[in-house]
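Dear colleague,

Thank you for sharing your sequence with our group. We've completed the structure prediction you requested, and as agreed, I am returning the results in plain text so they can be pasted directly into your records. Please verify that the sequence below matches your submission; if there's any discrepancy, let me know and we will rerun it promptly.
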Amino acid sequence: MGFLGNLFSDDKKSESGNNNNDNPLANTRRRRADKAVFTASKCPSDAGLKNSCELPFGFVFSPMAATGDGSGDNDSEKIPIIDCASNSLPPVLCLACLAYINPFDEIDKKTGTWVCSLCGHKNFLPIEEVFERSPLMTAMTSPCVEYRQVVSKPRPNEEEKKDDEYYKNNEEGPDYCTYIFVVDENLSPKDGQAIIPAIEAVLKEQSSNSDIYSKARIGLIVFGGSTKIYQLGLSGGLASADMYVPGDFDDDDDEFDKDTERRSYIGEMQSGGFTSLRNSLSSIFGVTINEAVDESVTASTGHTSSRMAMLSRKKAARLRKQENDDDTSIAEKSPWVNRTGDSNSGYRKRCTGKALQCALDLASASTSKSSRTSRIILFTNGYPNIGDGSVVTSKDGLEGSRKNRGKRATHSIVDTNMLQKAVDYFDVTANAAVSYGIGIDVICCGVTELALPVYQAMVEPSGGYVTPLVTLNTPQLERNLKFILNCTYMSRSKYIPEDLRFTGGAECILDFRSDSFVTPTQLCGSGQILSDLGCEMVETERSAFEEGKKLALERGFKVDDLPSEKAMEVSMTRVQVGRVDPLNTVTVLLEVDDTIGEEDDYAFFQLVARYISPKGDFEITRVSSFKLPIAEDVNDFLSSVDDEAMSVVLAKVAVYRSLYGREETDENRDLTVAGDTASQEKLAHDTQLDLDATIQRISGAFRLHDLERNTHSRR
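Please find the predicted structure tokens below.
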């Protein structure tokens, strides 16, 4: 998705779990969370930028932004919630274009008829359900509303009813989310030590809010020249490591699944899994020797430390104190830690591709306690240089290893061709991860070259973050982890059919609907455009459509050719995003075409976001409807411009073009490209020229435009 900087504070979180009170950007989004922000409150009156003084027309949309809980001073932030109390929506859909009922429709409460604002089709409501504070009345009077449907368990067929094994395998159990931490052993001791307290703080917060979060299960993979999987499910806080040997893609995964179950690679937070994680990382990086912390951990776990462990800690503290008498702020390290600087070889090896594949195998393993969703967090301080996904040539890697044996670490030069191959490799791998409900995020540190396009390709399909930090030994690590793990999540239903369990992908869909004379021309933001929809409707809408269809038949209307493929084709754009993220923002540029007529007095827009609740038990549909008047002339449009929104759109488009260029492609989503220095400089130069030309056109249009004479009136 992008880079996550110093955006988050430690202040009290809102009800939805966002920790953004000190972030002006987040506060702005919360103030406008119930609607998109358009660049102007009126629609241009004719085609072409000349009718808007060369200013773009579009909107910025935060589809899953956190909203107020109604307890603050500004209760207008609160979005009305319609609790359907089942998996069925009320009949709130237009049968022709599938738009949702809204206050801008022509509604006759006496007869129960309503005319769609988007396509003009006549629909019907059950009159007995139209009364004060009813779900239908709420939908009819609120421009922004949120529907919540219960995720119901699928009914067994006749054969499954007779099969006792079916009921045994589908018993209701705890809802798990698996966190796989992939750690680069080349991290410095300070950076490696900082991981444990940050993860502990985040997961403890989750365990204290079991009503919001799923139960946590954790796994650990450490990589360098090889990849090791740790057994965190052993009792007593013990852990051991196995070497990972990847199999062929087409091989049967049953053996790996059995090994995962038998060797307890996954540990539960409540059963000592975190103690095993702490001990495992301690054996690599060492731990801070703090007797107060150790005593509290002992008291909370109910286990007494062995005499040998106590003596080891005291010895480590004593040796560290002797080494650092002048710097007491440095954490004591375990004396048995093998420091990177003491290695026989100075060439730091990273088989990142192999480690990621191991994490995917571990997260997607079919076990008796499979997780609904999984998250992979990669900690590293350099680029992949061994095996799949390497950004350096094998010759360069071998020479680096030989020449620098016994010397300080050096860094090979990233090869542009290898970088592009690595980007393609990780893009394919990450797309496979999304189909399993697995999200990927990367936390980088250090000042060496990181080959960031590789990590961008790794996180983009799941809408993840790449967070470059100078060091992990900073409070910002915990803040970023809290946001990434507690405020964003993979959207997946609690009950997934077996045939779709590993192919269903992310259940997070955005629909943009607009009048036929307004067409989206550019989309800036994460997500994949779903083309060739035809008359396809999402599963959550079928009940509403069927009930509306039944009401229309009772009134004598024909419904055989509904929904209308043409109506949906000219009015709707559908986008699939990787995860639920309150900071996810989509910028859409719009174009008014020649089909607009003088009889058009307004432009109608409806933005719909569909996703699953954090625990997978509710399907959420957030609907925002807008009715913008058509500007009388250029002056009328200019007076309606939102300066802040216009500036944001211009800036976003400029950044977008600096990354991807301005040429149109056939791709349904923007692919990360690893260009060489010359191509990147050319993109940056073209973007600068583009910005200069845009500003010049806008300035020229304003100078030539006589604001006192309405020379271009629509009437």
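Summary note from our side: The domain at 176-286+337-487 is CATH 3.40.50.410 (Rossmann fold).

Kind regards,
the structure core
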